[in-house]
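ESCALATION

Customer reports they have been waiting on this structure for their group meeting. Please prioritize. Original submission:
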Amino acid sequence: MSLRPVYGHQAIRHRLAVAAAEGRLPASLLLQGPRGVGKQRLALWLGQLLICDQALSERATEPCGKCPQCRYAERGMHPDLHWVFPRARLKDSDPDAQDAKEDLGEAIAERMAADGLWGPSNGTEAIYKYMMQLVVQHAARRPAMARRAVFVLGDAERMVPQESSPESANMLLKLLEEPPPGTTLILTSSEPGTLLPTIRSRVVSVRVPALGRADVEAFLDDPAVARALSRVPREEQLARAAGTPGALFGGEPMQGAFVAARALLEAALAPSTPDGQAQRLKVAAKQGVAGARGAFSDMLDALTHLLHARTQHLVAQGAEREARRTTMAIPVVERAKELTQRNAMPNLQTAALLADLHRLLRS
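Update from on-call: job pushed to the front of the queue and completed.
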């Protein structure tokens, strides 16, 4: 049970590693980029590099993966590599740092048990005051095993600065202003604009871009990832990832949207026979009359991704005529999205959309 390897981001990793080896790495960093691109994993990689015995002595640009520091870090158990990320508020009316430590420990163990794969935080999760108290307590202590301490604050924009209790933000600001000697703070954010300006002004920002196709393919070929996504067709994996493979672990709503989109596309591709027509009518009827437009919009977004992925696949197969037809179908879906905003009934929209797609893709 350990973290997955880091896929992609070679240029950023090299730049950070050289800065660390030359003693130029800032004490406070902000890794910002699209959700699901691997910012927390990159931050943990940097944290491992900073505490790795061999990397420190040889000015290496990669953690050795063999020393005790690396082994503990890769299992999410190193006492000097602190990982904090949004969690649901504890039911205790007045939780403290010890409660936060136990809750985060359980959450990290769950992520390790899932082969180091996790989805984005949901809307009920945040970084609460008692979690920042835990960070402050650890920062005030000397490292237990390594020569330095590293703190990774994932989804830092989810920190809760309550108006009546601003201590959480103030505690982080004080750490950013005066980090203890031998301490590195690494924040990650998919929405850096929502961070307090005073926080953004005290960190050095590093842009983490979406992954290229080759890196996404390598991630999908990881044995643990392949097992987790064994029921998802490869084309759908690539479509959902779109350079941000963390999107593949976005939970049931997104999975359901792609299941519905795949059924719609299969119906559109069905032949012009009574059975094919019946399949299209069945798919249209499943959309309902009204009241589920949010899910319908998600399905249309997923359908756009699938059409892009189908186009790429057809081009790679040399089927240029079919690829052009598929490309022409994308604007049709975009028009359907516009109609959704005008309260058009999903079942009638789907019937019309299927007719248009069938004509384009099967003519």
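Sent to customer with the following note: The longest strand covers residues 183-189.
Escalation resolved.
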